[in-house]
Amino acid sequence: MIKIDHLVKNYGATRAVDDISFEVAKGEIVGLLGPNGAGKSTTMNILTGYLSSTSGRVLVDGLNVLDEPLEVKKRIGYLPEQPPLYLDMTVEEYLIFVYDLKGCELNRTKHLEEICEVVKLTDVYHRLIKNLSKGYRQRVGIAQALIGNPPVIIFDEPTVGLDPKQIIEIRNLIRTLGRDHTVILSTHILQEVQAVCDRIIIINKGRVVADELTENINRIAANCNRYQAKICGPQREVLSMLRDRTDIAYAEALAARDGEAYVYHIESAKGVDIRKSLFYALASKSWPLIGLETLGMNLEDIFITVVDKTDGAEMPKSPKGGKKGRSRTFEKDLAQSILDATAAKQESIAPYEGDE
Ligand code: ADP
Ligand code: MG
């Protein structure tokens, strides 16, 4: 549905987008995740035809944004970072204004009613926008994006400035929209992409540093060998037993207690699942194990790992033509496995074009 191909954008001497390529299939909900200044808004502005690129190509539904800007805009509903609201209009006046602007041909009353129902604006339909809370204004912004029922929805930081309840509502709304739309949203909030998106594209300094299905990232994050255990029993003896086990690489006792249990951090030997053997070992000593949880990496750890590893380092490009390993100085670790997945994916859409 969307194809971004070697996109570059310079603002004077600043390169805001530095050779970004990715594709989004019909019906996908994709999150662009990256710190402030990563180039998310710039990418979205080019994608929606509000900015021109320095080089590269953007196709929406097979149409080039540069060649057929109006046709492309008809297919996209866009909520920019600063929603373009007219504060002196009522919600109704504003939505009618946008309806006319878009040259929408659907039955006006019915269409606007439906949208207001979906985004829950019906209660404030006749109020002035300037008197609405930030959360309601954001909904008005979303409503204008939905007018004309475009197949592609692009939301730039849709939950910024909202309170936790509003954030949950907007996320639910985006998930609902994702059922019959292609959605791209940007955020610098990790939980947001985790909660809403099928796929996560991490952008840093104008480059794609990771592109993975959310479920894979969650799995990588959960596939971890660090645990926190709560064990009832004499602390020193328990600790020495843990440290003597060959399937445990590291164990330490924490200051924390849970009733009569002491709390330990344990790292299993690589590739070993210690959970059952640990249970039986402790049971044989009559030291009840009352808690065992994985200290998995959360998305934040993953993000920091990936971004740190790629800060200043050149990203591996499509490893075609015997160039495998070029600029790969990272050890084989989590970040690398995500990067490998990215490189493999990039290869399928962006043929390697030689050295820069
Ligand atoms: P994000 O949305 O990820 O926070 P942006 O796309 O807004 O990032 O910005 C990417 C980079 O481009 C930043 O370094 C920003 O300062 C710069 N930038 C954005 N817009 C402009 C502009 N109109 N003129 C000059 N520099 C800009
Ligand atoms: Mg932005």
Parts with pLDDT < 50 across at least 5 consecutive residues: 313-333, 342-356
Task: Tell me the major beta sheet.
Answer: 6 strands, mixed
The residue-averaged pLDDT reads 85
Give the helix proportion (percent range): 25-40%
Shape designation: elongated
Say what the CATH topology of the largest domain is.
Answer: Rossmann fold
State Rg.
Answer: 25 Å
What portion of the residues fall into strands of 2 or more residues? 25-35%
Quickly count the domains: 2
Helix and strand succession?
EEEHEEHEHHHEHEHEEHEHEEHEHH
How would you characterize the overall build of this protein?
36% of the residues lie in helices and 26% in strands. The protein has 356 residues and is an alpha/beta fold. The protein has 2 domains: 2-220, Rossmann fold; 225-294, 2-Layer Sandwich (Alpha-Beta Plaits), CATH 3.30.70. Strands 6-7-8-3-9-10 form a 6-stranded mixed β-sheet, with helices on both faces. Strands 2-1-4-5 form a 4-stranded antiparallel β-sheet, with helices on one face. Helix 4 (108-119) crosses helix 5 (134-146) and helix 11 crosses helix 12. The two termini are 29 Å apart. The structure holds adenosine-5'-diphosphate and magnesium ion. Magnesium ion (MG) binds at residues 40-41, 81, 156-157.
